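Agenda item 2: S-adenosylmethionine complex prediction
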Amino acid sequence: MSLALPILDDLPQRPKFAQGPRSLSAVKLLRLSLTDRCNLRCVYCMPDDGVTFYDHADLLSADDIVAVAAAAREAGVTHFKITGGEPTLRKDLVELVRRLAALGPEDLSMTTNGLRLGQRGGQLAHELREAGLDRITVSLDSLDPQTFGKISGDRGFTLEQVWAGINAATQAGFEKLKLNVVVIGGVNDHETPDFAALTLEHPWTVRFIEYMPLGESTLTQSLLGANTFTVDNQQIIQRIEAQHGPLVSVHRDREPGVGPAQVYRLDRPGVVPGRLGFISAMSQPFCETCNRLRLTARGELRACLFDGGEVDLLPTLRSNDDPQPDLIQLMARCVAEKPETHSPRGNRAMSQLGG
Ligand code: SAM
Ligand code: SF4
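Presented output:
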């Protein structure tokens, strides 16, 4: 796919930022990537000229995933996030949710492109709710059908199908959805005030995510240079305020989850049901408050999205009767191996790391 885009001004020099915590006790969230496969090819996440997926035989089994999650609970992790690739492609998803919920986390949530939630009368959304899933985040990068097609790699899926998924999730009891919008300069940044307007009607948190150049994707391979697509969230805030008036800051603690977003709401008389979140990993890195580990679908544990701190859990998972003590030690090692400061260009695609 070719994108005809204006070249944005060079980003300002990346600010210096404090090093993240090196102790396992700071880790509250484990992101579990259930698969690296996906039915979309979002331009910021995957290359459109083909993706080499892991062999099925290499993917972690449900038992493996639950063993890592149980070890994480023992080590003090309170929140699990199910992710992918696209987690709804995993056949044992509902059963996995049931088993993860049985570990008693404070919060069990999933990030999805939403396409499968609306199928068969919303059956999956209901099954997930019944199995113990607390929250859902749906990724949606455009309110325009053509732009949605372009960004998601023109795979024959429609914006309408995502809305059907969102409706199914709402009807199943996931009313307080989060919507993730990756903002891409020259492609969807003009839509950000329209996304913000959704929070006047719905109890949703719309989160604007600065595009991060990670691994190989259509955007990282672009001749324009990957960094030209990142838009500083301060510019997005200005754009939204120009249309909707000054934003009101909301204390982060009042939001579910333990994510890195700065949270605001639109200012209107009466109750505004929704919130706006800004995740500014590029312009204002938040390593200082990093509280997460991520498990790839092949069993690697990663401390950082961008690079470094990668520990392979598979040999331990497969070689021991009771791997838990060793898994906890490996988790501690992984956190200790975090990079000093994260580089501006990550070494693996988000579809493998799960966000
Ligand atoms: N397939 C699911 C989805 O799209 O929600 C879950 C996996 S996806 C890798 C997790 C999140 O990462 C999504 O919200 C997606 O938009 C975001 N993401 C992927 N690549 C990104 C990038 N290069 N920069 C910023 N966010 C990205
Ligand atoms: Fe698939 Fe999610 Fe990556 Fe899009 S962002 S290609 S939906 S894994």
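Discussion summary: Residues 38, 44-45, 83-86, 111-113, 139, 180, 182, 209, 211-212, 214, 350-351, 354-355 surround S-adenosylmethionine (ligand 1) (CB under 6 Å).
Owner for follow-up: CH.
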